[in-house]
Structures are given as C-alpha cells and as structure tokens.
Amino acid sequence: MKFTPVVLVSASLLLATSPAFAKGRAGNPAGTTAAQAQAAPAQAAPSPLIAAMQQELDREMAVLGKADPAAYFLSYTLTDTDHAEVQGSNGALLSSNQVQSRWAEANVRVGGYQLDNTHRVGNNGPTGAGGGGEPVSVDDDAAVLRRALWRQTDEQYRAAAEAYIKVKTGKDVEVQTTAQGAPDFSQEQPHVFYGAHASFTLDRKPWEQKARVYTNFFHQSANILNSIVTFSRCAEPVSGDQRRNQAAIRASAVPARAFHSGQGARWDGHRSLLQF
C-alpha cells in the first residue's frame, strides 16, 4: 500500500536575446510603450540571478553571433521548484521530505528569422530547438550558474549548427512548399515582467498521520492483497500572478487472488476503488 501527498511549486526565469531584440532594448529597455507600461500590473523586484543570466547571455551572443554559422537567437530558462512529498505503506510511514531544485536550459537558433536550424525540409520533420538542460545549484551563486549556462549553450549551439547545415543542404535540392517557405521565427518586440517568487510552507505532520491511517485501513482487510492510496496536490504558476491548484485522492486495490506461472506470482485482477 502506498500513500503519496504531493505539493509542487515551480517558477521560471526566462531571458532571450537576438539582434532585433537588442535594437528594441536599446530604445526601450522594457520593450513596451508608455500606454502598455501604465496598464501593466505591478511587478516584483527582479531576482539577483537575472543579472548573472543576462551577463552570460550577452557574452555568449557576442561570440556566437560572429561564429560560422552564426547564432541569431539565444535564450535561457531557469526553473526553481519546491517539492514536498509524504509516503506511507501498510499503516507505516515510508518517507517525508521537502526538496528544492533548479533546472537550467538554453535555446540556440542558428541562421536567420527566414531560415534557421528548425526548418522543415521535404518529408523530414523540424529538427527543433532547445531541449536538454541540467540541474544547477540552489544557492544564488552567479559563477556556478554561468558555468552551467555556458555548458548548455555550447551543447545547444553545436547541435543547432549541425542541423542548420543539413537544412541548407536540403533546401538547395528540395522544392519548397508555400508553408515551408514561411519564416521559421517571427520578429516581435520583447516584453518584460517580474512576478513574485512562488513558494509554499507545508506542515507535513498531519499528512504523515493520514498516510498511516489510510494505508492501515487496507492492511487490515483479508480481501486485499495489495493496494495504493495517493493524495496529491500541485500548485504551479500559469501566467502573470495567477496560480493553478489541483488536488486529488485516488485509491486502487488488488484482490487477494493470485495464480502462479513459470516465472512466479501474478495478480489476478486490479480494481479501482475510488477516484475524484
């Protein structure tokens, strides 16, 4: 038997730059008009990690923008997650913990807005951009963060450059359809928003007791061979200062009937008791 209440809160920092973005930023740092600035909701102070990410972004773009092939777009995403979990089985507590983690990702586009490494040629699907990523320190250490971003940028640039060469070769020999002739990336004015840091405080003691009580209920039944009880709650940001909260309780059980095969015991059936 297993009982798992889960609370998850995540927040992301996203920085992006390109030659067009840089021009817009020079004239208007926020990339917004005066009317837009007045209508915008109140913003929180930027995280100290923003400065470290911006410094690495500018340094990398200055180098990769002159490489062959040249990068024209680069973005970084840093996701900070708080995760609390309580697990119980057969009337006893298995684990109770809360963990913070951070994940860094880089997205590099090579070529230009009209044609880049994500372009689809013929029947082959787009190669995509970004992906991967790696865990980073939960300490606000700028040097450690920039080192991780450098590794991700190097990895993503190499993959993008290789894909772009294949795209260029394919484009020279393929007849492009109308859809395939559309720009690979649109040019838009940047918009900047700093939301409050999402966090939570959870008293796990009540859920630890529930884990013991709920799983013990099934443990005492002679008709239940194995069962799982799960309580989960997830809180995550969706846009602006809005957050989505979800909660669910699920229970399932395996009847105390089993038959033996040549490789050992197998369950005769599986029945969901309740879900809402």
- Terminal CA distance reads 19 Å
> What order do the strands of the largest sheet run in, or round the barrel if closed?
1-2-3-4
Helix residue percentage: 25-40%
What is the helix tally?
Answer: 5
- Main sheet makeup: 4 strands, antiparallel
The overall average pLDDT, rounded, is 74
Spatial extent as radius of gyration: 25 Å
Task: Name the poorly predicted regions.
Answer: 1-10, 24-32, 237-246, 259-276
In terms of DSSP E residues, the strand content is 25-35%
Please give the number of β-strands: 9
Q: How would you sum up the global shape? A: elongated
Structural class: alpha+beta
SSE string, helices as H and strands as E: EHHHEEEHHEEEEE
What is the secondary structure topology, with strand pairs?
Blueprint: E1 6-17, H1 19-27, H2 34-39, H3 49-64, E2 71-89, E3 92-110, E4 134-136, H4 142-173, H5 205-219, E5 224-239, E6 242-255, E7 258-261, E8 264-267, E9 271-275
Antiparallel strand pairs: 1-2, 2-3, 3-4, 5-6, 6-9, 7-8
Helix pairs in contact: 3-4
Structural write-up:
The chain has a 4-stranded antiparallel β-sheet with strand order 1-2-3-4. The protein has a 3-stranded antiparallel β-sheet with strand order 5-6-9. The protein has a two-stranded antiparallel sheet with strand order 7-8. It has a domain of about 150 residues. It has 5 helices and 9 strands, in the order βαααβββααβββββ. About 20% of the residues are buried. The chain is elongated. The longest helix is centred in the middle third of the chain and has 32 residues. By secondary structure, the chain is α+β, with helices and mostly antiparallel strands. Helix 3 packs parallel to helix 4.
